[in-house]
Amino acid sequence: MQIVPVLHIEQFKGENALVEFYSNDLAAHLKKNEAIVHRPHKHDFFLCVLFTKGSGTHEIDFSSYSIKEGSLFFLKPGQTHSWKFNTQAEGYIFFHTQSFFELSISDIKLNQFPFYYSYKNPPYLNLSPVELQKIASRFNEINEEYHVDTVYKKQKLVSIINLVYIDLSRMYASFDETEKTVSSTYLKILSDLEHIIELFYRTEKKANFYADKLNITTKHLNRVTKSTLGKTTTELITERILLEAKRLMVHSENSLAYVADSLGYEDYAYFSRVFKAKTQVTPLEFKKRYQ
């Protein structure tokens, strides 16, 4: 059962649209899509949004982030989010599919950029006035290019986006003190692990299953997850299960026992203990808090 709507990039196509890319002035985008943006939803694409004005709250997978001048957010496919504004927002937004970027620049993968290489990395930046001026200029160039019909349009857009991501990666490294140089091999293993967890977390909860799928030892897999995210493989699996549990509790009318069973916990009491150990509240308390 679909509990949160998934938005597809085709829904945002404009007159001069490319199939796998979209850009717009933020205020215009929010006005045009006001029936969607304030309710929890997901995307099947990568999204980057910059605020030059405005205030409010951005909720991403049950974590809330303040919106202010200079706020910038990154979202990967599958994340649930919604906006709540206190004052009118201005800025820029663009999003694209993975293939739009990676098929155009063959030697660069999106998960090489620190804000995209894991769902566990902070999904935002707070830019200084100098940084904001520089990045806003790039976003504006992307938006202007998107809205004209000219030759080499896709090539130029991908080139500017790549420059934006490089600049933002440098700023991100300064912002996130835990960020460190991670080998491309470790990044590939982490990316593959997150993909496999996504496929099997409902039924497989032991680290050795995922290590076997990746053809590495459990010890080495834990070394990878500890080096990149500071967490064990088991912690990543449990966090993904609990995230889905929260989504089901808040966005569906299923009983808590049904939620537990659908995630592979036949014993609801055990599931409740696991949930409380990780969140400090029971499933019922969590559900009531969001209601």
Key traits:
291 residues; alpha+beta; Arc Repressor Mutant, subunit A; 6-stranded antiparallel sheet; 12 helices; 8 strands; 48% helix; sequence-specific DNA binding; transcription; DNA-binding transcription factor activity; Helix-turn-helix domain-containing protein
What is the CATH architecture descriptor of the largest domain?
Answer: Sandwich
CATH class of the largest domain, named: Mainly Beta
Instruction: Kindly name the structural category.
Output: alpha+beta
N- to C-terminal separation?
Answer: 20 Å
Instruction: Tell me the Rg in angstroms.
Output: 20 Å
Question: Major sheet, described briefly?
Answer: 6 strands, antiparallel
> Shape, please?
globular
What is the CATH homology-level superfamily of the largest domain? Regulatory protein AraC
Poorly predicted sequence stretches spanning 5 or more consecutive residues: none
Count of discrete structural domains = 2
Q: Count up the helices.
A: 12
Query: Strand fraction band?
Result: 15-25%
- Could you give the count of β-strands? 8
Round the mean pLDDT to the nearest integer and report it: 88
SSE topology string: EEHHEEEEEHEHHHHHHHHH
Helix content: 40-55%
| CATH overall fold name of the largest domain | Jelly Rolls
Protein name: Helix-turn-helix domain-containing protein
Domain HTH araC/xylS-type: 191-289
GO molecular function: DNA-binding transcription factor activity; sequence-specific DNA binding
Keywords: DNA-binding, Transcription, Transcription regulation
